[in-house]
Amino acid sequence: MRGKEFIKTLFMSFFIIVTLVNVATYILGITLQPEIQFGYEALLSPLIYGFFGVLPFAIMYSNRELSVRQLLIRKSVQLLLIEVLLLYISFGGGMFDPSNTRLAMPLAGSILIIYVLVNLILWLLDLNTAKSLTNELIDFQKNHNEADISVSDD
Question: Can you give the pLDDT at residue 77?
């Protein structure tokens, strides 16, 4: 990924993460702590998670195409960094009570699920872009070939 494309991916990732964190917060909240109610400051936590969740995406930046092996290694390191960073922010940073360990595994699981979903959504968006570009290229080639044929017929 290069320059503008990388920045665009970071922004898309941020907004996807924030949306999925909201969904995960709702699901975990109603299942694990339905008695707790939040104030307005709770609206900032998905943004914080989104910001820190996007930071490890920096290891995916490369000026050249990565091999499958390099990509898998970087994705694994990225996932590990995201898990460690977000769990630290959650428990060490004061978002959750560190003594409440029953939240650790569901939170780690939700981070993994969100990571997989973000990558899946980004892949689907890239696939859609690739299909669109391929169709445009095919149309361009058809129009170009038709123009060559009409010129040679004259």
Answer: 94
